[in-house]
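Purpose: get a first structural picture of the assembly so the mutagenesis plan has something to point at.
Setup: two entries, given in the order below. No constraints added.
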Amino acid sequence: MSVFDSMVRHGLPLVPKFVVGAVARRYVAGETLEDAVRTIRELNAEGAMATVDVLGEEVQEREKAEAAVAEYIRIFDTIEELGLDCNVSIKLTLLGLRIDEEYCRANAEKIVKLAASHGNFVRIDMEDHSCTDATLRIYRDLQERYGNVGVVLQAYMRRTLSDIGDLLPMNPNVRLCKGIYREPREIAWKDFHTIRANFIAGLEKLLAGEAHVGIATHDEHLVWAGMMLVDRLGVSPDRYEFQMLLGVDPQLRKIILDHGHRLRVYVPYGRDWYPYSVRRLRENPTVARHVIRGMLGLGAAE
Amino acid sequence: MSVFDSMVRHGLPLVPKFVVGAVARRYVAGETLEDAVRTIRELNAEGAMATVDVLGEEVQEREKAEAAVAEYIRIFDTIEELGLDCNVSIKLTLLGLRIDEEYCRANAEKIVKLAASHGNFVRIDMEDHSCTDATLRIYRDLQERYGNVGVVLQAYMRRTLSDIGDLLPMNPNVRLCKGIYREPREIAWKDFHTIRANFIAGLEKLLAGEAHVGIATHDEHLVWAGMMLVDRLGVSPDRYEFQMLLGVDPQLRKIILDHGHRLRVYVPYGRDWYPYSVRRLRENPTVARHVIRGMLGLGAAE
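Result (structure tokens, whole complex):
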């Protein structure tokens, strides 16, 4: 493993912000809602739906959380005005989960309530394991009262199949992804094949129940498994969609759409692009290598 | 692959006994029953059950086989006296299988009969393929007459799914493991993923039947598969247990216990630790590398 790979895998303390910034240009729509709108329009034009996310997380100050709520409220007006095929994704640590759970819940409720009045939908992202229980509590509360909320479960978590079992009776809307945070072995599966297998097992459990499912993956094996399962179980097209992140494998996006499945792209924007981009970078260190080589005038790495 | 790795993989002709001895300290409780008792108490204190094994195999002299029987008889008194949560595992080549099958069966019967009088259980380990048929014959005979005996099947053996089919009507108690002996390709699967898949297929067949099952593995993917299967098939907790060897991955042991599953640890002791330790070493050559580097004062390898 090169020094660079090692650096990347161990949390990137040495990756300068300008490098991450170059990486961000691939994964982030821009700093403003207008940037996001441009991207969403392009996606809608290719037949993809979008979910827009205001970047930011782990806020400790109420002003920041409230600025985020205000930004989300601006989003719904824009979506409606421009007729975009787009819902929103929110992160509870941006809305004040680290400050106070009830305060956070109330902030999330403002967004959910406004979304409901626009006939729109809110996905609550899942963050690291310290948020899991609170996120599920807030999801249950808001979904039961408004009915337009979804949550995310991560296939790398040992608890996920059990969480699916707990949620199924409420016919939940669940985005299933592998998970991207660094979690301890005690609570998270670490083996690549086991995580894949657990993703498939969770997906089957969700689809065999009455859940609506976002199949969120760039792993083509899981795309295959998802297509197999919806076919075998005869899942109606409105009960599932594939989901991918902006900037990852547009060709796969097209393949999924060309096969007649619905697909939604996660479109993050905002000034706080650093932690999101670092996670993307950890997932795909090659991107940073390309960026750095490009900067040094070395040409493509491979 | 280094010369050392190659040496280790090809049967360790060059590994000196003192190196294997250093390795044994990790996988063997000690040379005496008292050493084993200390280990079993520690395991019981962490919530794990144990199965104790007197090291030794391939004996050609009746005195050695009879000494082993006497040692097992001493074990049951100790288990009862100290209230240990522990059963026993026996190897038929230690009890004289290479001398004479009927002689071996009679020795095993002495142990099984005494176990039955103590309300305890005897697992007959499976050894290399030359023992498979005799081991299954002795298992059937003793189980039918005493009811407190279990056997082992190895997922690497091509015959195993068929053996499961043959045993299922008697509601057997089967430990399923991958298998550790060097078997010819004609009778054993060699591919890692195929052995895994055969393990899962065998496990499902056992659990879907009425068997009691010891899920004996350190492969976390198979731990995952076991958890999935008992959940999906609704297997009651008294019908299965996970099983691991002493000295292998205590963190995984804790994870399994923390998730509410029963777990039993295989605790070997005795003076004849060489062949057992060589098999462990072949399974995990890294251990020997660490031992040798430590001896040479080279520090940790990685």
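The longest helix of chain A spans residues 62-82.
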